Amino acid sequence: MKNTKQQLVLDQIDKKLVLFQSLQIVVVPLKGWVHTVRTALKMSLRQLGNRMHFSAQNIKQIEEREANGTISINSLREVANALDMQLVYGFVSKHESLEQMIEKRARELATEIVMRTHNTMTLEDQQNSKERIEKAIVQKTNEIKSEMPKYLWD
Predict the structure, then answer these.
(1) How would you write the chain as a 3-class SS string?
(2) Domain definitions of the chain by residue range
(3) Closest-CA residue to 140 (of 117, 110, 118)
(4) What is the CATH number of domain 4-82?
(5) Whose CA is closest to 52, among 86, 26, 83, 27?
(6) What residue stretches are annotated with the HTH cro/C1-type domain (predicted)?
(7) Which of 34, 58, 35, 36 is nearest to 46 (CA)?
(8) pLDDT at 25 over 90
(9) CB crowding 82-106: b at 16 or more within 10 Å, else e
(10) How far, in Å, are 48, 53, 68, 70, 126 from residue 29 at the CA level?
């Protein structure tokens, strides 16, 4: 059952995630941030390499790994430090809140469960009205949200 502690955790994380909401519209440069910032500063591969104690070829590989999405967070953090910058890492939610995400998933599950029962009853010629089905979905959604069962994200 979702208790006050769980609700508090959700609320606290939502407050942190909302700070990233405006970043949804940020477009990552085609060649990546490392290349973009480095060239904007008119810093050569060799110069950044010297700051990191790497060769120019290593920096080129870092830029390529960032551009194709295979770079590690630690590597990005090291580059940021060498550029006298700070790496900021976080998630931008596709929903207004974690609560909304839970609501959406709970409704999906509730619909599956209710419709399975509805199909069985239809086969037995005992089908329910659309209103009754919707009411059952709402009730099951609320139950799932309240209990937050382990199968919620299966």
Answers:
(1) CCCHHHHHHHHHHHHHHHHHHHHHHCCCCCCCHHHHHHHHCCCCHHHHHHHHCCCHHHHHHHHHHHHHCCCCHHHHHHHHHHCCCCCCCCCCCCCCCHHHHHHHHHHHHHHHHHHHHHHHHHHCCCCCCHHHHHHHHHHHHHHHHHHCCHHHHC
(2) 4-82, 98-153
(3) 110
(4) 1.10.260
(5) 83
(6) 34-91
(7) 58
(8) no
(9) bbeeeeeeeeebeeebeeeebbeeb
(10) 19, 25, 12, 16, 58
The mean-pLDDT minimum among 23-32, 37-46, 48-57, 101-110 falls in: 23-32
Tokens of 116: 């399975």
Taking only Cα atoms into account, the Rg of the chain, rounded to an integer number of angstroms, comes to: 25
- pLDDT tens digits along 70-122: 999 999 999 999 999 999 988 888 888 899 999 999 999 999 999 887 766 66
- CA 100 from chain centre, in angstroms, equals 13
Q: Could you tell me the two tokens for 34?
A: 């490392």
**Residue for token digits 């999906």?**
108
